[in-house]
UniProtKB/TrEMBL annotation, chain A:
PANTHER family: NITRATE REDUCTASE PRIVATE CHAPERONE, REDOX ENZYME MATURATION PROTEIN REMP FAMILY, RESPIRATORY NITRATE REDUCTASE 1 GAMMA CHAIN. This is Nitrate reductase-like protein NarX. It is a multi-pass membrane protein. GO terms for molecular function: electron transfer activity; heme binding; metal ion binding; nitrate reductase activity. Residues 3-221 form the NarG-like domain. Keywords: Cell membrane, Electron transport, Heme, Iron, Membrane, Metal-binding, Nitrate assimilation, Oxidoreductase, Transmembrane, Transmembrane helix, Transport. In the C-terminal section; belongs to the nitrate reductase gamma subunit family. Heme b binds at H53, H63, H184, H202. It holds the Pfam family Nitrate_red_gam. NCBIfam families: narI (TIGR00351). The chain crosses the membrane at residues 6-23, 44-69, 89-108, 128-145, 173-195. It comes from Streptomyces diastatochromogenes. It is found in: Cell membrane.
From TrEMBL, chain B:
It is found in: Cell envelope. Signal peptide: none annotated. Gene3D superfamilies: 3.30.70.20, nitrate reductase domain like (1.10.3650.10). InterPro entries: 4Fe4S_Fe-S-bd, Nitr_red_bet_C, Nitr_red_bet_C_sf, NO3_Rdtase_bsu. This is Nitrate reductase subunit beta. Pfam families: Fer4_11, Nitr_red_bet_C. One of its GO terms (molecular function) is electron transfer activity. SUPFAM superfamilies: 4Fe-4S ferredoxins. Keywords: 4Fe-4S, Electron transport, Iron, Iron-sulfur, Metal-binding, Repeat, Transport.
Length: 240, 531
């Protein structure tokens, strides 16, 4: 079990992520969108969506620091274990609360505003469950170990996560980790695997190049497309 | 000089009867799909009126187009690049679908399926957004023909601006009002703010013909273009989550056919043709400080196709010969630059729009005839154009950022043309003073009359085809820039997708007639010998 969860699952999730992204890019560029519902309802979204997105970006940054900055580095900078713990506790909780409030408001909006609810697919619903579970369990895991220096995941989870990249996963490190952290990690990996197959794929199209390109884009006609092409998704006739 | 070619349009508003044929045929062609119910690439607005979507011209609210920053440089009115990315999670200035109107259908089934009862069954309106019965309260043409103008008329942003500047008021009392129709499509601007707003770089202006398009594969649905366009002519498809807009019917334009809206226009008021312009001068022209100078600045960007130096530069820039020839015969160029009767719609947005309008003289003629005067006498008309300040100022707010000069000049030319042609038709000798009063010569007036009144299909639509432009490349091979064996199912190197023949992108099957018959014979034959 240990080998399956901590030795195999991470690689399966990563493979599904990469394969999914390649597949989506090659075969479903047209479906690669945020599928925004802002035209249906703007007021709640204007509060909830920035809350959630900025929160989750901060959470992501926190995870990157927590997992990929070794303890020895922060020690070398003179950051004591207690300081680090407080920083991660308060910073993480603040970002987490922002994220959770955002996503709860988003779910509320999705359920109560009928055009938005009608535009929600089964895929979206599964996505919301997995995403919400990952966030809530992460928060719970963190907040159930707040006393003292808390649970020091930087001696177990973080080295394991780093060992994944050397292709020699130290699965035994994860065996003694508290169950809540284990569940959070598993759901997190499921979420990573699910990203390319859901609307979450839009995270990979963060439009950073916009900062560097000229404002007006010119393109020449595609010489390969001089004739008609078969009917494509989104261009079906109404009522058929 | 960096010459480029653009297919542009001019609409003669005097001839628009507000029949909405253009809107309907456009809708049938392009937007009769789910998710696009509320989308009108072409719409016809009654002015004064709020327009579609409601009050789209109020840029203090919608923040479309460009403005000048403190240093006098162009800046998107909705905010710069960083500002845009910071607000990407929820576009703060996006019109909701209800600012257009909530699309609906009718519960037609009830008409045939209703159980026997005392009441006649009715088809109730049902919202296309949530499938529930709804009360229809607004739509794309709610204020058609000034319907409800006493109540809604004051909401027209241009009426508001005219009021600020004129002491008189735009009247909506029946006897005192004026009205005209304004058909609108995408402006295919030279300095498109929608393209500049797109974070994904999915929107682009085509280098060959200047048509502004959305790459549906690259669009990620950030919705910034909808905000960026001051004309609100980029729409969000709420079923696919992508932006869509008027394509100027490029598949038709490429083969030399006019757009659907032009083709089906009952009043024959649309003109299509090539305009040559200098792409290097666009930014400078769009950043002219005074809004009222933008019309002249844009005229300065256009190149004269009769000028040999310009033609030479165009050849060097790779513009095909037949495009340059088409530019010389372009009715659009004639109406915009030669006769100067066409004016841009809202040049103050600084996007350099390329669908221009000949302002309507009819409100003036009608008012004049209504008072018992001769509505076709030049002096009466010149006088009336000056006296009827409200229509003039309103038109100026629409077409020249409030400068009545160019509008008056255009209307004067139309008035002179009426008077001159009436004299000719009645067998009188036209007074040459009438023509010279508007700075034209009699034969110019007659040419303009021909273009505006009786121009035939080929004169109204002078569209060079993409194919002739591509001819040199096509001479080399039937399949430009590719291996002629690399087609679907062919012996070329393209090959199948990873999951067999049906996977991957389907390309256009290219089969010669001989192969087609051979294959069909083999597939449908009853004898093994044929196979």
């Amino acid at each position: 079990m240990t080998t399956l969860l901590w030795g195999a699952l991470p690689y399966i999730a990563f493979a599904l992520l990469v394969a999914g992204l390649v597949w989506r890019y090659r075969y479903d560029k047209y479906g690669w969108t945020t599928r925004s519902s802002q035209v249906y309802e703007s007021r709640l979204l204007s509060i909830a969506s920035p809350c959630f997105h900025y929160g989750i970006l901060f959470v992501l940054a926190g995870h990157l620091v927590g997992l990929f900055v070794p303890m020895s580095w922060t020690h070398a900078l003179g950051v004591s274990e207690h300081t680090y713990h407080l920083f991660s506790l308060y910073g993480g909780t603040a970002a987490g609360v922002l994220t959770v409030l955002g996503i709860l408001l988003l779910v509320y909006r999705r359920r109560t505003r009928s055009p938005v609810f009608r535009a929600t697919t089964a895929n979206d619903k599964v996505m919301y469950v997995v995403l919400l579970a990952a966030i809530v369990l992460g928060m719970t895991a963190k907040l159930t170990h707040p006393s003292g220096d808390g649970y020091n995941y930087r001696e177990t989870i973080a080295p394991w996560a780093r060992s994944l990249f050397t292709l020699r996963p130290r699965t035994q490190l994860m065996a003694g980790v508290p169950v809540l952290y284990q569940v959070h990690a598993v759901i997190g990996m499921l979420l990573i695997a699910f990203v390319p197959y859901s609307r979450l794929v839009h995270m990979f199209s963060a439009p950073v190049p916009y900062l560097f390109r000229p404002y007006i884009v010119y393109r020449t006609r595609d010489p390969k497309q001089l004739g008609p092409r078969p009917e494509r998704r989104g261009w079906e006739r109404l009522g058929s | 000089m960096r010459p480029m070619a653009q297919i542009a349009m001019v609409m003669n508003l005097d001839k628009c009867i507000g029949c909405h044929t253009c809107s309907v045929t456009c809708k049938q062609t392009w937007t009769n799909r789910r998710g696009m119910e509320y989308v009108w690439f072409n719409n016809v607005e009654t002015r004064p009126g709020q327009g579609y979507p409601r009050r789209y011209e109020d840029q203090e609210k919608w923040r479309g187009g460009w403005e000048l920053n403190r240093r006098g440089a162009l800046k998107l009115k909705a905010g710069g690049r960083l500002h845009k990315l910071a607000g990407i999670f929820s576009n703060p200035k996006l019109p909701e679908i209800k600012d257009y109107y909530e699309p609906w259908t009718y519960d037609y089934r009830n008409l045939t399926d209703a159980p026997l009862g005392d009441d006649y069954p009715v088809a109730r309106p049902v919202s296309s957004l949530d499938g529930k019965p709804m009360k229809i309260g607004w739509s794309s043409n709610w204020d058609d023909n000034l319907a409800g103008a006493p109540a809604y008329g004051d909401l027209d942003p241009m009426v508001e601006r005219t009021r600020q500047q004129a002491s008189e008021k735009v009247k909506f009392a029946f006897e005192q009002t004026f009205m005209f129709y304004l058909p609108r499509i995408c402006e295919h601007c030279l300095n498109p703010s929608c393209v500049a707003s797109c974070p994904s770089g999915a929107m682009y202006k085509r280098a060959e013909d200047g048509i502004v398009l959305v790459d549906q594969d690259q669009c990620r649905g950030w919705r910034m273009c909808v905000t960026g366009c001051p004309y609100k002519k980029v729409y969000f498809n709420h079923a696919t989550g992508k932006a869509e807009k008027c394509t100027l019917c490029y598949p038709r334009i490429e083969v030399g056919l006019p757009t659907v809206c032009s083709e089906t226009c009952v009043g024959r008021l649309r003109y299509l043709g090539v305009i040559l312009y200098d792409a290097d001068r666009v930014t400078a022209a769009a950043s002219v400080r005074e809004e009222k100078d933008l019309y002249e600045a844009q005229l300065g960007v256009f190149l004269d196709p009769e000028d040999p130096a310009v033609r030479q530069a165009c050849e060097r820039a790779g513009i095909p010969h037949d495009w340059i020839e088409a530019a010389r015969r372009s009715p659009v160029h004639a109406l915009i630059s030669r006769y100067r009767v066409a004016l841009p719609l809202h040049p103050e947005y600084r996007t350099m729009p390329m669908v221009w309008y000949i302002p309507p003289l009819s409100p003036v003629v009608d008012a004049l005839t209504g008072t018992g005067h001769d509505g076709e006498d030049a002096l009466n008309l010149f006088g009336a154009i000056d006296t009827l300040r409200i229509p003039l100022e309103y038109l100026a707010e629409m077409f020249t950022a409030g400068d009545t000069g160019p509008v008056r000049a255009s209307l004067d030319k139309l008035a002179a043309m009426r008077s001159h042609m009436r004299a000719l038709n009645l067998g009188d000798v036209p007074d040459p003073a009438i023509a010279s009063a508007v700075g034209m010569r009699p034969h110019e007036i007659e040419e303009m009359y021909r273009l505006l009144a009786i121009a035939k299909y080929e004169e109204r639509y002078v569209i060079p085809t993409a194919a002739v432009g591509d001819a040199r490349r096509l001479e080399e091979s039937a399949l430009p820039a590719g291996c002629s064996l690399d087609y679907d199912g062919g012996p070329g190197m393209g090959g199948d997708g990873p999951f067999g023949q049906d996977s991957g992108r389907r390309q256009l099957p290219l089969v010669s007639v001989e192969n087609f018959h051979l294959l069909r014979k083999r597939q449908t034959s009853d004898h093994a010998d044929d196979a």
